[in-house]
Specification:
Layout (H helix, E strand, L loop, with lengths): L1 E2 L3 E9 L7 E9 L13 H5 L14 E8 L5 E12 L2 H4 L6 H10 L1 H6 L10 E10 L4 H17 L5 H10 L1 E2 L6 E4 L7 E4 L12 H9 L1 H12 L3 E6 L2 H15 L7 E3 L16 E6 L3 H5 L4 E5 L4 E3 L13 H13 L2 H4 L14 H19 L7 E5 L5 E4 L1 H8 L5 H8 L1 H10 L3 E2 L3 H8 L1 H7 L3 H19 L31 H17 L10 E2 L6 H4 L11 H16 L2 H14 L3 H13 L6 E3 L1 H16 L9 H9 L2 E6 L2 E4 L13 H20 L2 H10 L10 H7 L7 H4 L7 H11 L5 H30 L8 H4 L4 H6 L12 H7 L12 H19 L4 H31 L19 E10 L20 E8 L2 E8 L9 E6 L3 E10 L5 E10 L4 E6 L5 H15 L8 H4 L20 H6 L1 H15 L42 H11 L2 H9 L8 H6 L2 E4 L15 E4 L4 H8 L9 E5 L6 E5 L4 H8 L11 H18 L13 H11 ...
Parallel strand pairs: 10-12, 10-13, 11-12, 19-20, 32-35, 33-34, 33-35
Antiparallel strand pairs: 1-7, 2-3, 2-6, 4-5, 5-6, 8-9, 13-14, 15-16, 17-18, 20-21, 22-23, 22-28, 23-24, 24-25, 26-27, 27-28, 29-30, 31-32, 36-37, 36-42, 37-38, 38-39, 40-41, 41-42
Helix pairs in contact: 5-6, 6-20, 7-8, 7-9, 7-13, 11-13, 13-19, 22-23, 22-24, 23-25, 24-26, 26-29, 27-29, 27-31, 27-32, 32-36, 32-37, 36-37, 41-42, 45-47, 46-47, 50-51, 50-54, 52-53, 54-55, 54-58, 55-56, 55-58, 58-59, 67-71
Length: 1913
């Protein structure tokens, strides 16, 4: 029972003490005047009566009513019902002084009415003051308060004859029941009657209509987000102009939160004076008048709900976590069904008659029912996670949050996590966790309706029915008596407030009211308390968690098979079958990723612990520890699945004896897990164990033994952790145990004890309290030692624990609870803040552990009610426990060091090349994944090969890693990664954690330009000195001080190979001596030179690939005698010597010039006149240009002495020389360096009369002009007036003639406008593409437009409109750098034309390559999944854009040359981009360069002889280290690769050849790509030595020689698709979209390292299929091919290579010398060509080729290196189509295959009814043997052969003689593995044959088949 109202207060307006315009409230009277003892008078009521402030009004307002809520210091809520009315103010009152305000106010209250009663309506300035009647109560009966205050007001206004004092006295003495569903009628003594109904259960909130109104005002989504915000402790602010609505909204929101109680600031109506409360840091729910909206907008972290506008505003910085799915969507849909039932019917064609919607009160309950149901779903099974820590004197209950989240599968869910951490939930646990208490609707729902709710989820109508049932109960709770008698309360008349009140509200008689109150209290004291006994029961727990979790559990489905594997492995370990266990271990470790398997492991290990101990041998110990570590590594710090909890008792049980008296326990090996340093884990474990022991305390002794067996607990009393398995609910393994009748949970026991508690005697109570307290205390001691076990490392001197483990270091300074968004952690924080750990830099491990344990002990003991004496005792004990444990550990550590070390994997020694020697032997390292996902088992599947454990070796040639994957599941695959030392581009130190979580500081990342990355950390055993030595040696080998130190030059030289490069000069004959006697040797060979200089012709098919005949060998004998004259540029020579010299030096150049017919070495005049060009020896001594070859092609008319002057105009003296001539158009391609500024200006400025004094620059410019004139005049002049050679004419003609060809032009429109104009000015496309290629502009506008042509070209290719700038043809186009030719205006009369283009510089190539390297080999895992991040990085590198530009310029030059104009490429210094363009142009224009021989010649001529700076660009020596690696040659190879992809049939060499050159141009294995020019090579003596030693079998010095040797053995460099078209000019597409990333950059073979060192890449051959010795079936040769591990071309070679290998193998078997692959291939091609000719029968020979040449070419793009492409190339031959008649190809194929496969024809081609392998017992004393049996129904025979493809029948059984077929029995020597039922006998008239099939079904089939044959006969 309680008072209806505690206080009645009258509050009136009073002026502000500081004289401001606003007034203030003043309490005129309050009753009773003394405070009640149980309920003091609340402060600040005046503020809440007028929340917007006390103000005077110019007119009379109607009375208002609202209920404000005040919360006192004990969190009790006081409801202040305020009825406000307005009274006129006396005019004098406004000007009153502040001194005596109170007295005047009283006068106005008492004496005033006399004057006012008769007064006329006030003057126009009349003001009205508010006065408020306030009822203060602890009960929330708003309607009763409204009626009661209304009654008082009515009596006053209407002047009823009732004493106000009586009414107030009755009101204050009215006593009503609190709950229980009773009904009470009250009367206040004014002829009124009110009925008060109390709710059935006081725990359920009363909401009236407030929830329904809240939804109407804000809508579903907004209310849901407010609901989530309130639960997750955000600040919520309601705005409205109505105070009543604010109260209702706040009440509604609180009602939704049931069963949680809101425990933060709750102020439904906040007065204006207290608005600063909104800035409080704690969460709140507050209502404020909408007038103060502006103040609310300044708050950054407050969610504002505007009730009048229906909006909810969430600030940007606030994240409200939504409900977990599917609850969010389900709740939303149910709410809409309740609020808007019409929605379901809105779309029906024939809607039913409108259903009656629920009343507002009913709808309110339905909405609440939805949320009640939601909480039941969210918190289902929560009671299974409660820990009963104490039962007496008061229950102490803790909630195992991690276990709850883990079981529900909601560990990641932000919402539930925050709810469980919040204070509301903490209150829920302490209030509802109590096992013996009154229950309510929520308890019933969460215990009994879970199954129903889950079943209903998918049926909305059933859900709705359930909601309505719950709503009924809620409604009944609020209104237990529906047919209630009507209230009878007087109300004032209509508009009574406008009438003049007879007088102001009178002052009441305090004495009278007090007398009534005193009377009532006296009466109450006499009467017995009418307390209705609460019905307390045991709270039902509901179904256990395991039953709830099915829906969300499928995270790691563990099949029973996996669990079986785990069990088997453990039993093998404990039976000592180590080999079996080792086999199963990988499968077990993989299975342990799943939760069920981890639980299974814990259970199985428990079975092997007796009396708290299990002593293992070393191997068993290692196995158990490894499995435990695997289990724990996936545990989060919360251990939500209870795995660490289950293993905790085990790690203190399993141990091994290290020596007498020294035992090592498993805990010392499983400390590296974050869970052990998480306080929440220890708390949950502690409380779980305490619960177990408290429960055991109260169970009967007889019962006590039973449950321990039920739970599988074999641990004995000291360490009750085994029971924890059953009672820490989350493990869920106790489900079957709970079915036992005698199994009572701790909550049941507690409930029983709470029921009995009042009946016990005081002594008994004390005894129980002491027992419980000492139980908790003993567990605290136990846990202190347990924690020290797991927190103290084996070597306590190491500081690792503090720094690396996520544990103690952080925990000391962080809060013990997880980071909460509330004050929930405040309890915990008080312990933490005392000793911040930041200052403990001394790395005092024991100290840190002691502090950690003390903090834990403080927290759990305080919460569990341990006495302070005991707690002090614990604090004293903890340091001793830790110290004792440290001493034990010291002995363990000492002994464990003496154990034989763990077998680290054996170091695998790499295979070395001949001459390659180890500099540093294997240093143990871990190779880490580097972002290429294939190696780590990425999206393409395959195993995680990396990280791998092994060793790194440094040799004179390579850095090599060999090792094995650390993941045992991968198996023992050898991982090899290596790259040449010379290819190293970047070396940096790194710090990383290794896979085994050890922290190894020494890490090294090596990146190479061959696209390999070694990201490794050195093992602990490798000292930092060794690591440093490795770095130094690597640096020394990478950057030798001199080029002589490179591997290619030290290999086989006189000094001992393998030592670091020598610094001393001459040991043995130096290279220079060889070049000193050039003169003499040159003279000796002069005779032979003349013989060999005949016109070069490519070798025929037969000779290609073989060494050239002797007379082409150019052997040079090198004499040993020294000669004083050295080779110097200034050396003068006789003409004959000069000739010798040039012929000696020029190999590639000269051979190619002769092939092209570009002049001869003869100096006779007759020859000279007929040929336009000559070979000039002017540079024989490299005097003019050191980077040019000695022989150069120059116009016939230019004298040698002029060349010296011309060369001065060009950079690096690289003047224009001819390098190629088109065989068809006779146009020539020239190359040079860029122009020097001074020469250019002089040459190209408008040619006015020269100034009188000509400078040297001018004269050289004239020489230059003459030189270019000579070049132009050397070209054949065909003056066709068509203007074909101007660019515009060329383009139009070209496009006119080749429209059908898809390759005819490469057009990229530079801008949208150009697209419109493309029909008008067709050529602009071509030039626009160069101009707008890539990111930088190309041609300057004026030159570009002029070149492009202004008018539409004529159809016949005639010149366009006469306005065109250049009527003449341009015989020569000079392609120069735009920057260089700035401001140049070429004279139109000249016969050459400038084409300024913008090209990239070498530094851009270098930067781009660096980014490309990072994209292809990123060194860290990609941030985005899939290929997105790779493609972004690739685009950023701009590598493909540079390729695009090169191809574009090259195609342009090809077009110009093809149209008859010559081109001079004059870019940069003439040795980088110039070389790239010139080489590409020749490759595209001349099919010869697309052969193996031709490509070699092209590289030797353009790259080596013309002085590309390989050493400089590759940073070969120490001097070049700063300049870095610039892959100009690699970029050229990439361009060739792009062309190869588009024209696969035009190249004799395979894509592998390009990769091979790309790898070895940087590897320094060969001397070919060393040094910067021929001059330097001669100076070092390299050019001759190679030739001199060609015959020897020493290691190859030249890459070409190596390729030649290898090509004889294997077709690896040969392209089977090669079927060239004569004189085909290639015009590849160059748009970036047509380019592909070269797989050279991305592929890798971890099985053997890079495949470019052929000797190393060939692994051991695979054994052929053979019968097993036991007569079983032959083993399959299938094998798994892993991405990035195996070499696919080797694992699955293409069809033709396979056939050629097969052919060689068969020939070897036949005893013939195997034929070379090339000869065999040529023969097959020739035979096929012949057949094709016979089949054609006179049709045009190349119909297919000629009709759609380009289509056929582009088809080839898809026929690259696969087996399909290879077989196709058989029919696409070089000069034959594949046949034009329909039958042609078929016959050809038949004929060629018949010859190839004749040996496989089957002799017996009769009908085979049934066939297969059977074992047959031989004749007497002969063994069983597998044979191939054929059942032939036609011949009525059972024949047998040796094997399937055998053509000779070895014997047969005539079926006519068979008498019976019967089951047989195994005899001696029969196959062991076969089932007995697979034997059968065939009995004939002669003998009995014993057979055995491979299995029972096939035996049955054989018997049936033979029987059917017999019956047919």
């Amino acid at each position: 029972m309680a008072r209806l109202a505690d206080y009645f207060v009258l509050v009136a307006f009073g002026p502000h003490p500081r004289g401001s315009a606003e007034g203030q409230g003043q309490i005129l009277q309050r009753f009773p005047e003394k405070d009640w003892e149980d309920n003091p008078f609340p402060q600040g009521i005046e503020l809440f009566c007028q929340p917007s402030g006390w103000q005077l009004c110019p007119e009379r307002n109607p009375p208002t009513f609202f209920v404000a809520v005040l919360t006192d210091i004990n969190s009790e809520r006081h409801y202040c019902a305020c009825l406000t009315f307005w009274e006129p103010v006396e005019p004098t009152q406004e000007g009153l002084c502040t001194e005596d305000t109170a007295e005047r106010e009283e006068e106005a209250g008492e004496g005033g009415p006399v004057g006012l009663s008769t007064a006329a309506p006030g003057p126009p300035g009349q003001l009205f003051a508010p006065k408020t009647l306030v009822l203060v109560s602890r009960l929330d009966h708003a309607e009763v308060f409204r009626n009661s205050l209304g009654l008082l007001y009515t009596i006053h206004v209407e002047g009823l004859n009732v004493g106000l004092e009586n009414v107030v006295g009755n009101l204050l003495t009215c006593i009503i029941p609190l709950a229980g569903g009773s009904q009470r009628t009250i009367s206040l003594g004014a002829g009124d009657r009110q009925v008060i109904q109390t709710p059935l259960s006081d725990s359920l909130p009363i909401s009236r209509c407030s929830v329904a109104l809240l939804f109407r005002q804000l809508g579903i989504t907004n209310v849901l987000s407010l609901f989530c915000a309130a639960l997750t402790e955000h600040k919520v602010l309601f705005l409205s102009r109505s105070y009543q609505r604010l109260s209702d909204a706040c009440r509604g929101l609180l009602a939704l939160l049931f069963p949680l109680r809101y425990s933060f600031t709750y102020v439904p109506i906040l007065p204006a004076q207290l608005l600063e409360v909104l800035s409080t840091p704690t969460p709140f729910i507050i209502g404020v008048n909408a007038a103060f909206q502006a103040e609310a907008q300044e708050l950054l972290d407050v969610i504002v709900a505007d009730l009048d506008g229906g909006t909810v505003t969430v600030p940007e910085c606030v994240h409200i976590p939504p409900l977990p799915e599917p609850l969010q969507s389900q709740t939303h849909s149910i709410l809409s069904m309740v609020l808007d039932p019409e929605l379901e019917l809105a779309d029906l064609a024939f809607p039913p008659p409108t259903t009656s919607t629920s009343s507002l009160k009913m709808q309110d309950k339905e909405l609440r029912a939805v949320f009640l149901r939601l909480f039941a779903q969210l918190l289902q099974g929560y009671r299974w996670c409660l820990h009963m820590v104490r039962i007496h004197p008061e229950p102490v209950i803790r909630f195992h949050k991690a276990a709850f989240l883990g079981q529900r599968g909601l560990v990641e869910d932000d919402f539930l996590m925050k709810v469980l951490e919040g204070m509301a939930f903490a209150g829920f646990v302490s209030e509802r966790g109590v096992p013996y208490r009154p229950t309510d609707l929520f308890d019933e729902l969460v215990a009994h309706e879970v199954a129903r709710m889950r079943a209903d989820d998918s049926h909305p109508q059933r859900v709705l029915r359930h909601v309505k049932e719950l709503a009924e109960q809620l409604y009944k709770n609020e209104n237990p008596y529906p047919a209630v008698a009507m209230h009878k309360v007087q109300r004032p008349g209509e508009a009574s407030h406008l009438r003049r009140a007879p007088r102001p509200f009178p002052r009441l008689d305090e004495g009278m009211v007090q007398w009534i109150v005193d009377q009532a209290t006296a009466k109450m004291q006499g009467a017995p308390p009418a307390v209705k006994a609460e019905k307390r029961t045991t709270v039902p727990s509901g179904p256990p968690m395991t039953a709830i979790l099915e829906r969300s559990s499928g995270l790691h489905g563990n099949s029973a098979r996996r669990l079986e594997v785990v069990r088997n492995c453990i039993s093998y370990v404990f039976e000592g079958k180590m080999l079996e266990a080792k086999k199963l271990l990988p499968a077990v470790l993989r299975a342990l990723k799943g939760r069920a398997a981890r639980r299974c492991l814990a259970q199985e290990l428990h079975l092997h612990v007796q009396q708290n101990r299990a002593v293992l041998d070393h191997q068993q110990f290692d196995f158990v520890v490894r499995m435990m570590n695997c289990c724990l590594q996936d545990c989060t710090s919360l251990d939500e699945h209870g795995i660490a909890a289950a293993l905790l008792p085990l790690v203190t049980a399993f141990c091994r004896k290290l020596s007498p008296g020294v035992t090592q326990f498993a805990y010392s090996c499983v400390q590296e897990h974050v869970v052990w340093s998480t306080p929440q884990f220890w708390e949950a474990m502690f409380y779980g164990d305490v619960q177990t022991h408290i429960r055991a305390l109260y169970l009967e002794p007889a019962e006590d033994r039973d449950p321990s067996q039920v739970c599988g607990d074999s641990l004995g009393p000291r360490d009750g952790a085994g029971l924890a398995l059953a009672h820490v609910r989350p493990l869920g393994q106790v489900g079957e145990a709970l079915t036992q009748e005698d199994e009572r949970s701790a909550l049941d026991v507690a409930s029983e004890q709470r029921r009995l508690w009042p009946t016990l005697s005081r002594e008994k109570q004390q005894e129980l309290v002491q027992k419980e307290e000492s139980t908790v205390f003993s567990q605290a001691i136990h846990y202190a030692s347990r924690m020290s076990y797991l927190l103290l490392p084996l070597d306590s001197s190491k500081s690792r624990l503090l720094r690396e483990r996520a544990g103690l270091g952080d925990l000391e300074s962080a809060s013990n609870s997880l980071v909460t968004n509330s004050m929930a952690g405040s309890v915990a924080e008080s312990y933490d803040t005392e000793s911040g750990f930041e200052d403990a830099e001394t790395c005092d491990v024991p100290g840190a552990v002691v502090r950690f344990i003390n903090r834990f002990v403080d927290k759990v003991c305080t919460e569990s009610g341990v006495t302070s004496d005991h707690l002090k005792g614990l604090h004293v004990m903890v340091p001793d426990i830790v110290q004792m444990h440290i001493e034990t550990l010291e002995a363990v550590q000492r002994e464990s060091k003496r154990l034989p070390p763990i077998q680290k994997p054996k170091l695998l020694r790499p295979r070395l090349l001949p001459g390659e020697e180890c500099v540093l032997d294997g240093l143990r390292v871990y190779l880490l994944p580097d972002g290429r996902e294939e190696g780590a088992g990425g999206s393409r599947g395959g195993p995680a090969l990396l990280p791998a454990e092994g060793a790194v070796f440094l040799t004179t040639y390579r850095v090599i890693f060999t090792g094995m994957p650390t993941d045992p599941l991968v198996g023992e695959q050898v991982v090899v990664r290596s790259f040449p030392v010379a290819a190293l581009t970047k070396e940096e130190r790194i710090n990383i954690q290794t896979p085994s979580d050890q922290y190894l500081p020494d890490g090294l990342q090596l990146r190479s330009c061959t696209f390999q990355l070694l990201k490794m950390v050195f093992d602990e055993e490798v000292g930092s000195d060794s690591a440093e030595l490795f770095r130094k040696q690597l640096h020394k080998l990478r950057y030798p001080p001199d080029i002589r130190g490179t591997f290619a030059l030290t290999l086989g030289s006189a000094h001992t190979p393998g030592r670091p490069p020598r610094a001393t000069k001459d040991k043995g004959p130096s290279f220079r001596t060889l070049s000193r006697n050039l003169m003499k040797n040159a003279k000796r060979t002069i005779g032979r030179q003349y013989v060999t200089r005949k016109k070069y012709s490519p070798p025929s098919w037969e000779h290609r690939g073989q060494p050239p005949p002797g007379d082409q060998e150019d052997e040079i004998s090198v004499s040993e005698e020294l000669e004083p004259s050295t080779l110097t540029p200034s050396l003068a020579l006789k003409p004959s010597d000069r000739m010798t010299m040039s012929s000696l030096v020029e190999r590639a150049c000269c051979r190619d010039y002769q092939r092209l017919g570009l002049g001869t070495l003869s100096s006779s005049l007759s020859r000279a006149k007929s040929e336009p060009f000559r070979i000039s020896p002017v540079n024989r001594m490299y005097a003019i240009c050191r980077s040019y070859p000695g022989l150069l092609i120059v116009p016939q008319s230019v004298q040698d002495n002029a060349l010296q002057r011309v060369s001065r105009c060009y950079r690096q003296n690289r003047f224009p020389v001819v390098c190629w001539r088109s065989g068809r158009s006779k146009a020539v391609l020239l190359r040079s360096g860029g122009l020097h500024g001074k020469g250019v200006v002089g040459l190209f400025k408008a040619q006015n009369a020269p100034s009188p004094g000509q400078s040297q620059a001018d004269s050289s410019s004239l020489e230059q002009e003459k030189y270019l004139q000579a070049v132009v005049s050397s070209m054949p002049r065909y003056a066709d007036a068509s203007g074909r050679n101007t660019l515009s004419g060329f383009s139009s003609a070209h496009m006119g003639s080749h429209v059908p060809s898809p390759r005819a032009r490469v057009t990229t429109l530079s801008n949208p406008m150009a697209a419109l104009a493309s029909r008008r000015t067709a050529p602009r496309g071509k030039w626009g593409s160069v101009r707008a290629g890539g990111r930088s502009g190309g041609l300057s506008t004026d030159v570009g437009t002029r070149l492009a042509g202004m008018g539409p070209p004529q159809a016949n290719g005639a010149p366009p409109d006469p306005g065109f700038l250049r009527p003449q043809r341009a015989a020569l186009y000079i392609i120069g750098d735009k920057a260089q030719l700035k401001g140049v205006r070429p004279d139109p009369l000249q016969q050459w034309e400038l084409v300024p283009i913008e090209v990239f510089e070498t530094r851009q190539v270098k930067g781009s390559f660096k980014k490309l390297l990072k994209a292809c080999v990123p060194s860290y895992p990609a941030t985005e999944p899939g290929s997105a991040s790779f493609l972004c990085s690739l685009e950023d590198s701009e590598w493909l854009i540079q390729i695009h530009k090169l191809l574009q310029v090259s195609v342009l030059v090809v077009e110009l040359l093809d149209s008859g104009s010559s081109v001079l490429v004059s870019l940069e210094d003439g040795w980088d981009i110039t070389t790239q363009v010139v080489s590409l142009v020749q490759l595209l224009s001349d099919p010869f360069y697309r052969t193996l021989e031709g490509f070699r010649l092209l590289v030797e001529k353009e790259w080596l002889s013309f002085g590309h700076r390989f050493s400089h660009r590759g940073a070969h020596t120490l001097a070049g280290q700063s300049s870095g690696f610039t892959p100009v040659f690699l970029q050229f190879l990439d361009c060739v690769h792009q062309v190869h992809l588009q024209f696969p049939m035009e190249f004799e060499f395979s894509p592998f050849y390009l990769k091979f050159l790309g790898y070895h141009h940087a590897s320094h294995r060969f001397r070919t790509f060393l040094l910067d020019s021929d001059y330097e090579r001669i100076e070092l003596g390299l050019l001759y030595e190679e030739k001199g030693e060609r015959r020897g079998q020493a290691a190859c010095r030249s890459v070409w020689e190596y390729v030649e040797r290898l090509s004889k053995r294997t077709p690896v460099f040969y392209n089977y698709l090669y079927a060239p078209e004569d004189a085909e000019v290639l015009r590849p597409y160059s748009n970036v979209s047509n380019l592909k990333v070269w797989d050279f950059y991305t592929e890798e073979t971890l099985a053997e390292g890079p495949p470019y060192d052929w000797e190393l890449a060939q692994g051991p051959p695979e054994p052929p299929e053979e019968e097993r010795p036991d007569g079983g079936a032959p083993q399959s040769r299938r094998r798994v091919v892993w991405p990035c591990y195996d070499s696919c071309p080797r694992a699955q070679p293409d069809a033709i290579s396979q056939l050629l290998e097969e052919l060689q193998r068969l020939e070897t078997e036949l005893g013939r010398p195997p034929e070379r692959w090339k000869d065999a291939w040529d023969r097959v091609k020739a035979a096929q060509r012949l057949e094709g000719r016979q089949d054609e029968r006179g049709t045009p020979s190349s119909l297919l080729v000629s009709s759609v040449p380009h289509h056929r070419r582009s088809l080839g793009v898809y026929l690259q290196e696969g087996p399909v492409g290879s077989t196709l190339s058989l029919s696409l031959d070089s000069d034959q189509s594949s046949g034009s008649s329909a039958s042609g190809p078929r016959q050809a194929a038949r004929r060629s295959t018949s010859t190839l496969y004749s040996q496989f024809r089957t002799a017996e081609s009769e009908s085979r009814s049934y066939e297969g392998t059977l074992y047959k017992k031989g004749a007497f004393m002969k063994p069983w043997k597998a044979r191939w049996f054929v059942l032939d129904k036609t011949k009525h025979q059972l024949r047998y052969y040796d094997h399937r493809v055998d053509t000779e029948c070895k014997g047969f059984i005539d079926l006519a003689e068979v008498e019976a077929v019967a089951p047989g029995t195994p005899t001696l020597g029969a196959p062991k593995t076969v089932d007995e039922k697979a034997f059968f006998d065939v009995k004939t008239t002669r003998r009995v044959y014993n057979f055995c099939a491979q299995d029972v079904p096939s035996a049955q089939q054989w018997v049936d088949q033979i029987q059917s044959c017999l019956s047919d006969a």
